[in-house]
Design brief:
Largest sheet: 3 strands, parallel
CATH architecture: 3-Layer(aba) Sandwich
Strand order of the largest sheet: 2-1-3
Shape: globular
CATH topology: Rossmann fold
Oligomer: single chain
Structural class: mainly alpha
Number of helices: 7
Length: 144
């Protein structure tokens, strides 16, 4: 089993798009958890999460600053098997009445195929984990 952790947009966003003084104590603990994963070289990023993080940025200066920061984190390679597994995960969840985004199911597929937990604050992943063989990285103070 790998020690790597696939980090979802929700966690990266707390760390990179929010001011530390605006974080709740739970959110600050989550950012600390991410920092520990980054320091240990265990945090993993995929291109779709990078795109989500860079989308909706207010100014070109903010965009460029975040783009440069994210360049420190290489993208996990994603291949055709990952996309097919994402479609299968989507189908399996949909059959149980659980819907989600294409990005979410790609994150699920990549994590399952590599046997990595997902670090997220998004409660949808808890619902997916009820159907898929998915592990969630415990988010400090969030109850996951």
């Amino acid at each position: 089993m790998s020690l790597n952790v696939l980090v979802d947009t929700s966690v990266w966003s707390l760390a990179l798009r929010r001011r530390p003084r605006d974080l709740s104590p739970v959110e600050a603990a989550i950012v600390t958890g991410l920092s520990e994963l980054v320091t240990a070289g265990r945090a993993r990023l995929i291109g779709m999460v990078r795109q989500e993080l860079l989308s909706g940025i207010q100014t070109p200066e903010q965009y460029e600053k975040l783009r440069k920061t994210l360049r420190a984190y290489p993208d996990e390679p994603v291949n055709v098997d990952d996309f097919e597994a994402a479609a299968k995960a989507n189908n399996n969840c949909r059959a149980k009445g659980i819907t989600g985004s294409a990005v979410d199911f790609l994150i699920c597929a990549i994590a399952m195929r590599r046997e990595w937990p997902i670090f997220t604050t998004d409660p949808d992943f808890g619902r997916y984990a009820n159907v898929l063989s998915l592990r969630l990285h415990p988010a400090p103070g969030s109850g996951t």
